[in-house]
Design a protein that fits this description.
The complex is a heterotrimer of chains A (352), B (249) and C (66).
Chain A: E1 4-7, H1 8-18, E2 21-26, H2 33-42, E3 49-52, H3 56-68, E4 72-77, H4 79-94, E5 99-105, H5 121-125, E6 136-138, H6 143-160, E7 163-169, H7 170-174, E8 176-179, E9 206-207, H8 214-235, E10 238-241, E11 248-251, H9 254-269, E12 274-279, E13 281-283, H10 287-293, E14 299-304, H11 310-317, E15 324-328, H12 337-351
Parallel strand pairs in A: 2-3, 2-4, 4-5, 5-7, 6-7, 11-12, 11-14, 14-15
Antiparallel strand pairs in A: 1-8, 6-13, 10-12
Helix pairs in contact in A: 1-2, 1-6, 3-4, 9-12
Chain B: E1 3-5, H1 24-38, E2 44-48, H2 56-59, E3 63-66, H3 72-82, E4 87-93, H4 94-100, H5 102-110, E5 116-121, H6 151-154, H7 160-164, E6 170-177, H8 181-199, E7 204-210, H9 214-217, H10 221-235, E8 239-243
Parallel strand pairs in B: 2-3, 2-4, 4-5, 5-7, 6-7
Antiparallel strand pairs in B: 6-8
Helix pairs in contact in B: 1-8, 4-5
Chain C: E1 2-4, H1 14-18, E2 24-31, E3 37-41, H2 52-56, E4 62-65
Antiparallel strand pairs in C: 1-4, 2-3
Classes of the chains: A alpha/beta (352), B alpha/beta (249), C alpha+beta (66).
């Protein structure tokens, strides 16, 4: 297929339709509204369901219902809306239901702002809701990657019966880039567990997250944890750029990684051996690849559009074996490549 | 000799966890009888709420989903939109439907979703041990209104059928009770109608069932039925509040 | 005639009150696994198979035959 020029949010919606998403439920919030608007325009005529819910809470629970019925279902929102969805996300995880949740992040806390941000890293990776569970979190850094990750997110969700999240941001969502859509969708697996009417051919299916007896609840949580181990082995993904000989490795994801890449290029021009480590999945985190990328590094610089969230994981996954500094802008302020370059130079001078 | 009355086929052959004399069991049976009579067990999906009837999924033999507190109408919407040929019903208590889930209830009605809502109103939170519900009657003593519900501090109860019947997407709203044999037969008819409406795609249907909670009311099962008659029905009058065809009129 | 499922009955007595022939009562001699004293029909000969007890039973424990 030919390249088309598309806005990140719209490309994401188009990708979902092509990936076999049958039901989309959403609620308007900036800066993700184009996702819902694209579905509204296209879903019905392509045999799917678009429904604007009365709230984020209702939208995620409609996803719970549609996913229970065995179809590919999705919702999207931006930061404050994801907080509202967290109840439903926890129930979906506890009920072992597949679905895709999109967060086009904006600045917080509270109503915050409407400019791009990465301040929901902790929410997405550590605490998307109450209870012992994880989301698989994909962090696209381009419009093309938004498209590719939507396909992967649906496949992973179905394969492991888990909710997955595309953690985008206002920058990736709003910008236009050329994209190519994959030619074909992977087969959607049979869902023998679905509540789609037993047609008098099987015992009734139950979708629930309730286990009143502690040993049964523990068993269900531990079983899910086994699944998480598999996912950690199979799904962690990253991109490394000029890390092999890098003395200074910048770690950044999403939009910030694009800015960091420019800073790395500029640093190299100035003779500083800088590299970029970009996780494409934030959970599971590509921790082995991170350690490999930093084996020659004297310093790690973690750059984020937040006050410092992923940086703690970088310290954890490197076991603090390399000093880790942080540079972040938050509240919707996007860092300039020069700001990161300045940090790199500072670190390289400190090292020499 | 032939059997003229027995447990409906679409109810599991297990003892329920409900307290002795709790009328949830009667309402379960009425729903199951309707499912049997319409021969739709294989194409029905039920949504159980959070509350005493959370474990309804263990009792109905059709496919069942357990929803977050109050969200059953949203979950039902998801199922119905995914496959409009399924019969979808929610089974919700007063706290679930009329407090934490008021928004989901009203908007499912406003969308004219072709679903059936069975609303069990016993004027109290049962599972958590008898606190004030959105339908607790003024003066009623509960754990959180130990001196009786005073509208000056606790506000007034919601009359759900009266509210829902004002919404354009509502096809059918009827309040029934299960305090006596004639009322139970009337309740069955209403539930049947609410399911038939799905077949005919007439819009949102709700049946509010005045039910008892002997344990948390501190009464015998028989006294509890008397309370339905003497205190609840005068406050929540029985009857059909709306009966129309939203989509084909 | 009626049959009352011994294990499903919880002895709530709603059936005993609704029976027009007053032929159902609770047997306090033995309880079921859950510990409930259950309802029993004391004189099935007199049963008119009106089904009122079964309609009133919250535990769908009563089967009626005619």
């Amino acid at each position: 297929m030919n390249k088309v020029l598309m806005k990140g949010n719209e490309a994401l919606a188009e990708a979902a339709i092509r990936a076999g998403c049958k039901c989309f439920f959403g609620y308007p919030i900036t800066p993700q509204t184009e996702v819902a608007a694209y579905f509204a325009k296209n879903m019905a005529k392509r045999g799917g369901v678009f429904l604007q819910a009365e709230s984020e809470i209702a939208a995620i629970n409609m996803v719970l219902g549609a996913s229970s019925a065995g179809v590919r279902a999705m919702t999207s929102s931006s930061s404050p809306g994801i907080s509202l969805k967290s109840e439903g996300i926890s129930y979906i995880a506890g009920s072992d239901l597949p679905c895709v949740i999109v967060n086009v992040q904006r600045g917080g806390p509270g109503l915050g702002g409407i400019q791009p941000s990465q301040s929901d890293y902790n929410q997405a990776v550590k605490a998307p809701g109450h209870g012992d569970f994880h989301l698989v979190v994909y962090a696209p850094a381009s419009v093309q990657e938004s498209v590719d990750m939507v396909f992967t997110a649906f496949d992973t969700a179905d394969r492991y019966r888990i909710p997955t999240m595309i953690l985008s941001d206002g920058l990736i969502g709003q910008m236009m880039e050329p994209v190519v859509f994959p030619e074909k969708t992977n087969d959607i697996p049979e869902k023998s567990w679905a509540c789609d009417g037993h047609k008098n051919k099987r015992k009734h299916n139950i979708v629930t997250s309730l286990f009143l007896e502690p040993d049964k609840l523990e068993k269900s949580v531990l079983q899910r944890n086994e699944k998480y181990k598999l996912i950690s082995n199979n799904c962690a993904d990253c991109e490394t750029y000029l890390c092999d000989d890098a003395h200074i490795v910048i770690t950044a994801y999403g939009a910030t990684a694009r800015i960091a890449r420019s800073a790395v290029n500029e640093a190299r021009k100035q003779g500083i051996k800088a590299g970029l480590f970009r996780p494409k999945t934030l959970w599971p985190f590509p921790e082995n690849e991170l350690r490999n990328s930093c084996k020659n590094a004297g310093h790690i610089l973690c750059a984020e559009m937040s006050a410092g969230q992923m940086v703690n994981d970088i310290k954890l996954y490197t076991n603090c074996s390399v000093p880790v500094s942080f540079y972040g802008r938050t509240g919707g302020v996007i860092p300039e490549p020069e700001e990161l370059l300045r940090e790199i130079i500072k670190l390289s001078e400190g090292r020499q | 000799m032939s059997v003229i009355f027995q447990k409906p086929k679409s109810l599991a052959d297990v003892q329920t966890h409900y307290c002795p004399g709790c009328t949830h069991g009667i309402i379960h049976r009425l729903v199951a009888e309707v499912i049997d009579e319409m021969n739709i067990e294989g194409t029905t999906v039920g949504i159980s709420p959070v509350g005493c009837s959370v474990m309804a999924y263990e009792y109905f033999n059709c496919d069942m989903i357990e929803a977050p507190h109050g969200r059953a109408p949203a979950v039902a919407t998801g199922v119905k939109r995914a496959d409009p040929e399924l019969f979808v019903f929610t089974y919700q208590g007063d706290g679930d439907l009329a407090a934490i889930g008021t928004n989901e209830t009203i908007h499912a009605a406003a969308r004219g979703e072709n679903i059936t809502v069975i609303f069990v109103n016993n004027t109290i939170y049962g599972m958590t041990g008898g606190q004030m519900a959105p339908t607790t009657i003024p003066g009623q003593i509960t754990q959180t209104t130990p001196y009786g519900r005073d509208p000056k501090t606790n506000g007034f109860p919601l009359k759900v059928c009266e509210i829902i019947s004002q919404i354009d997407g509502t096809a059918f709203a009827q309040r029934v009770a299960v305090d006596s044999v004639p009322h139970i037969k009337e309740a069955k008819k209403a539930i049947r109608k609410a399911f038939e409406n799905q077949k005919e795609k007439r819009g949102f249907s709700i049946v509010e069932v005045l039910s008892s909670c002997p344990t948390n009311w501190g009464m015998t099962p028989s006294e509890a039925l008397k309370r339905i008659r003497e205190e609840m029905i005068p406050y929540y009058p029985l009857g059909i509040f709306k009966d129309t065809d939203v989509w084909n009129k | 005639m009626i049959t009352i499922d011994f294990e499903r009955c919880k002895g709530c007595r709603l059936c005993t009150e609704v029976c027009p022939k007053k032929i159902i009562s609770v047997d306090y001699e033995k309880h079921n696994l859950k510990g409930y004293y259950t309802a029993v029909c004391t004189d099935n000969e007199q049963c008119i198979s009106c089904s009122m007890c079964a309609v009133m039973c919250p535990d769908y424990a009563i089967t009626v035959e005619r």
